[in-house]
Specification:
Blueprint (H helix, E strand, L loop, with lengths): L11 E2 L9 E2 L14 E7 L18 H8 L2 E7 L5 H10 L3 H4 L15 H7 L3 E6 L12 E5 L9 E4 L2 E4 L4 H14 L7 E6 L36 H5 L30 H4 L2 H10 L3 H21 L3 H37 L5 E7 L18 H4 L3 E4 L8 E8 L3 H9 L13 H4 L10 E6 L12 E6 L2 E6 L4 E6 L17 H18 L3 H8 L1
Parallel strand pairs: 3-9, 3-10, 4-12, 5-6, 5-9
Antiparallel strand pairs: 1-2, 4-11, 6-7, 7-8, 10-11, 13-14, 14-15, 15-16
Helix pairs in contact: 5-10
The structure holds 2-deoxy-6-O-sulfo-2-(sulfoamino)-alpha-D-glucopyranose and calcium ion (CA).
Length: 536
């Protein structure tokens, strides 16, 4: 058990709450001396799993620049997303609220930009606020002095940006271009004001198109299969139903094979409607490349196509080949994200901004890199529930700290407001990470978290709606449309293969977790019964 810490400061606790998650840490900045308000650079990539970051112990890739943030700051080992999918994660980031409160439950919903968000509150407090990169919330950004965002998911090469209402296509590799824009924003800012800059990468989102300069990386590597790669989904019907197995990948669009080097497109890719047009979509994507880009592209992939054709792989061999191909391109995309993170850190070094700037690196959620035989996210299982999080702020955070406490994407908004000395609205459902990160005393910390995923049956990958609770040791999940419960003992079964919900030896735990889960739903105001009746 972890020791509970008591705060030296005054806390305002929402009526009847009494736990950290509903505790508003303090009304005013915890700095007693009137120091300059810190700048904030929040870098968020898309689908970057902890398993692919060397500071989280990955052996597959080196991410020296992201690791630098961890080394000079803090790494959160138990950082989780509350709804593991892109747009909902972003809406929670902005509002500090669960999906059922901010109205954005799945990727089809539109964000109501008239609601309270942390950028708006920072703006009021004198910050300049900016966002560059992926937005994905459908409505126009609000609360930003400037915004330059990709349209929808955006493209890996030569993307179209919406620059405050004007669309403009820019030639180049998107991860670099987003960073160019970020640096440009910093160069042109008003130096009298603190800034908050959100840098949201498209990469390493599907379909994993690397910068050609990284084509020579990982060619001779054989990535070990994750332990749960050949999961049989026993006693887990929702997992068995999900359409996101490595075997389901499109061999064209995802794995970059050309017509002629394979017989026919075999993957369902997670969306049966898309399957019929996938080869054309892939062709159109390649057609967007400039001649020079296309030349580099062909020089690399033509060789791979020829080798594939010759090998004539089938069954297990083909499946494992797909996994290796997936990993190569996914990791190559991350190399660019890491390098560009280094560019931003270098900028701060050069301008002498390190001390006064909070730098965060995270991803909108985790991702499967072959665990359970999958790619994609959505499930409350560890790999996609996890949300990598490292943060540096030399004025308050001791270098090399590692936090075991459970932190959530709900916590970002209150954290930024806290550092900026802005009152945290009671309606925000997260807790500031400032005291925890600064190793200061705090009242108590959450030892359980609540999760709710909604995108079914529409959209991609066929993952049943579910809610659940994760404690330090156990996880209880309810796939409510099929009324199937799952229980995992994370200590005994870290890969979540054995659903022990019906095991007689665990019935006391099941009963307790049910109670805790109900309490969390009440505390956060998630009226699940309504959701269930709507979806039937
Ligand atoms: C796209 C992807 C899906 C992915 C969703 C959501 N298909 O539709 O695989 O789950 O985005 O991702 S793709 O073939 O178009 O790449 S999210 O990160 O935006 O939520
Ligand atoms: Ca994502």
């Amino acid at each position: 058990m972890k020791k509970q810490k008591m705060s030296r400061r005054s806390f305002i606790t929402a009526a009847g709450a009494g736990t950290a998650a509903l505790t508003v840490p303090y009304l005013f900045s915890s700095c007693s001396s009137p120091r300059k308000k810190p700048n904030i650079i929040f870098i968020m990539s898309d689908d970057h799993a902890e398993q692919a970051m060397s500071c989280y112990g990955s052996k597959m890739i080196n991410t020296p620049n992201i690791d630098r943030i961890a080394r000079e700051g803090i790494l959160f080992k138990n950082s989780f997303v509350t709804n593991s999918i892109c747009a909902p994660s972003r809406a929670t980031l902005l509002t500090g609220k669960y999906s059922h409160k901010n109205g954005l439950r799945d990727n089809r919903d539109e964000f109501d930009g008239s609601q309270m968000t942390f950028p708006k509150l920072l703006q009021k407090a004198g910050y300049q606020t900016h966002i560059v990169g992926k937005w994905h919330l459908k409505t126009e950004p609000t609360g930003f002095d400037s915004w330059q965002v990709l349209i929808g998911q955006g493209d890996y090469y030569n993307p179209v940006f919406n620059e405050m209402g004007e669309e403009r296509q820019i030639t180049g590799y998107t991860t670099d271009l987003i960073t160019d824009k970020a640096i440009d924003v910093l160069d042109n800012r008003d130096p009298q004001k603190p800034f908050c800059l959100l840098v949201h990468h498209k990469a390493p989102h599907r379909n994993w198109m690397p910068d050609s300069k990284h084509f020579d990386k990982f060619n001779n590597v054989k990535f070990p299969l994750p332990e749960s790669f050949y999961d049989g989904y026993k006693n887990r019907p929702a997992a068995a139903e999900a359409d996101m197995r490595i075997d389901d990948m499109y061999i064209s669009f995802d794995l970059k094979l050309k017509k002629g080097s394979y017989d026919k497109e075999t993957g369902t890719g997670g969306n049966k409607n898309f399957a019929s047009q996938v080869e054309n979509t892939w062709q159109n994507t390649v057609n967007r490349l400039t001649d020079e880009q296309k030349k580099a592209w062909d020089a690399h992939y033509d060789k791979m196509n020829a080798e594939f054709k010759k090998a004539n792989l089938k069954g297990k061999e083909l499946l494992e080949w797909k996994y290796q191909r997936y990993m190569q391109d996914y990791l190559r995309c991350i190399l660019s994200v890491d390098e560009n993170t280094g560019r931003l850190l270098g900028y701060l070094d050069d301008k002498g901004l390190n001390e006064d700037t909070i730098v965060i690196y995270t991803s909108d959620q985790g991702f499967y890199l072959g665990e359970h035989g999958w790619f994609d996210k959505r499930f409350m299982y560890e790999e996609s529930l996890g949300m990598p999080l490292v943060m540096r702020y030399p004025r308050e955070i001791q270098a090399g700290r590692i936090a075991e406490e459970m932190v959530l994407n709900l916590d970002f908004a209150p954290t930024f407001l806290d550092y900026a000395g802005v009152q945290i609205p009671l309606e925000m459902q997260g807790t500031s990470l400032r005291s925890l990160a600064g190793n200061k005393m705090y009242e108590s910390w959450r030892t359980e978290m609540y999760y709710h995923y909604y995108e079914y049956p529409h959209g991609w990958h066929d993952v049943q709606m579910h809610y659940g609770i994760r404690t330090e040791r156990y996880k209880l999940i309810h796939f409510y449309n099929i009324d199937k419960w799952e229980l995992y003992d994370l200590q005994e079964d870290p890969h979540e293969i054995n659903n022990i919900y019906d095991d007689p030896a665990h019935q006391v735990i099941v009963r307790d977790l049910h109670k805790q889960l109900k309490n969390l739903q009440q505390k956060y105001g998630d009226k699940v019964e309504q959701q269930i009746s709507k979806s039937h």
